[in-house]
Amino acid sequence: MLVPAGAMATALVAQYGFALAPCEMCWWQRYAHIAAFVAALLALVVRDPRASRLLFWLAVAGIAASGLIGGYHAGVEYHWWQGITTCSTIRLSGGDALDAILNAPVIRCDVPAWTLFGISMAGYNFIGSLGAAAVIGLLARRGR
User: Fold this and answer.
1) Rounded to an integer, what distance in angstroms lies between the CA atom of residue 114 and that of residue 28?
2) Alpha-carbon gap, residue 86 to 40, rounded angstroms
3) What's the pLDDT score for residue 82?
4) Which helix (H) or strand (E) holds 106?
5) For 88, what's the count of Cα atoms within 13 Å in the CB-facing half-sphere?
6) Which of 49, 79, 98, 104 has the greatest number of CB atoms lying within 10 Å of its CB?
7) pLDDT of residue 97
8) CB neighbour class for 33 (10 Å; exposed up to 12, middle 13-18, buried from 19)
9) What is the model's pLDDT at position 111?
10) pLDDT score at 92
11) d(CA 1, CA 60)
């Protein structure tokens, strides 16, 4: 639960604390982490050991899926390959809807909102999520 919760906390601080609006692929990564968090939470409260084990592995898969989406997104940002052509988000604010749409900034998926040492948030999600999923999976297998 700590990995998806930490990833989501980081994303929300970036969005609301530093005004880094998410693009469409950023949302995809978030959805996978939210699903992983819910699966991990359910794994803790479900009494059936088989169901709990299944939910645990679904949580690990969700973390890994977010990492893979992050890797794809990072590749789009580095222009290693082209992303989907409809990948942009329009940030709307209140008032007249048409005026808001026409004047809203477009959040592009192929332009990183932030980088550190040349790695974008999507790149860090790729590294962190796949690494965490691998470590969690190995520790779980070892614990058997």
Assistant:
1) 18
2) 32
3) 84
4) strand 106-108
5) 12
6) 104
7) 67
8) buried
9) 82
10) 56
11) 10
Query: Could you tell me the mean pLDDT of each successive run of 10 residues in the chain, 144 residues long?
Result: 94 94 92 97 94 95 97 93 68 64 73 88 96 94 75
108: DSSP letter:
E
Closest C-alpha among 36, 14, 32 to residue 107:
14
Q: How far apart are CA 69 and CA 73, in angstroms?
A: 6
Phi, psi values for residue 107, rounded to 5°: -95, 110
Dist. CA 97–CA 21, nearest whole Å: 19
Q: Residue 97 contacts by C-beta under 8 Å, 6 or more apart in sequence?
A: none
Written as six digits, the tokens of 2 are 């700590």
Query: What pLDDT is recorded for position 15?
Result: 93
Distance CA 144, CA 142 (A): 5
Give me the helices (H) in the chain, please: 2-12, 24-45, 49-77, 97-103, 121-143
pLDDT of residue 86: 59
Torsion on CA atoms 27, 28, 29, 31, rounded to nearest 10: 90
Do residues 33 and 62 touch, judged by C-beta distance below 8 A?
yes
User: Nearest to residue 11, comparing CAs of 26, 1, 32, 28?
Assistant: 26
